[in-house]
Amino acid sequence: MPELKPCPFCGHEVQMSYRDVQIYWAEPGQVARVWEIKCPECGAHMEDHYEHHLYDKWNGLTRLDRCPICGDYIRRIEPYEDYDEGTYYYVECRKCGLSTRKFSDSMEARVFWNARHGRG
Ligand SMILES: [Zn+2]
Ligand SMILES: [Zn+2]
């Protein structure tokens, strides 16, 4: 896994860890894993149930860039219900209608939207 960006507040290196928490409505011992990124210097932190989601969020990959066609800032991420294939997600520009293909994971759709040819 690539590196985590430093703390946005103080610039210190951050640490990623997880803990298992009891699910309040479940049998004793049935736990859910919570991943956490924490800055040991200033206490900034962020949590998610999925390691890769947390990583993406911390590094700013969940932010959606402008539409590559029309440059509009307005865009949305939509769940798409398919009778055969279940729920999919895609990102679509409200202004020009440009859309990514369908992804089973909303985070993948965001990363795809942001990763464009010739960028950066
Ligand atoms: Zn910090
Ligand atoms: Zn557009």
Furnish the topology, listing elements before pairings.
Blueprint: E1 15-22, E2 31-38, E3 45-48, H1 51-58, E4 75-82, E5 86-93, H2 106-114
Antiparallel strand pairs: 1-2, 2-3, 4-5
The protein binds zinc ion (2 copies).
Helix content: 10-25%
The rough form would be described as flat
- CATH top-level class of the largest domain: Mainly Beta
Structural class, from secondary structure content?
A: alpha+beta
Order of helices and strands: EEEHEEH
The name of the CATH topology of the largest domain is: N-terminal domain of TfIIb
Q: How can the largest sheet be summarized?
A: 3 strands, antiparallel
Tell me the number of helical segments per DSSP (H or I, 4 or more residues long): 2
What is the CATH architecture term of the largest domain? Answer: Single Sheet
Q: Ions, cofactors, ligands: which are bound?
A: zinc ion
| Model regions low in confidence, pLDDT < 50 over at least 5 residues | none
Strand order of the largest sheet: 1-2-3
User: Span between N and C termini?
Assistant: 21 Å
The structural domain count equals 2
| Average pLDDT, all residues | 85
Radius of gyration: 18 Å
Percentage beta strand: 25-35%
Can you count the beta strands?
5
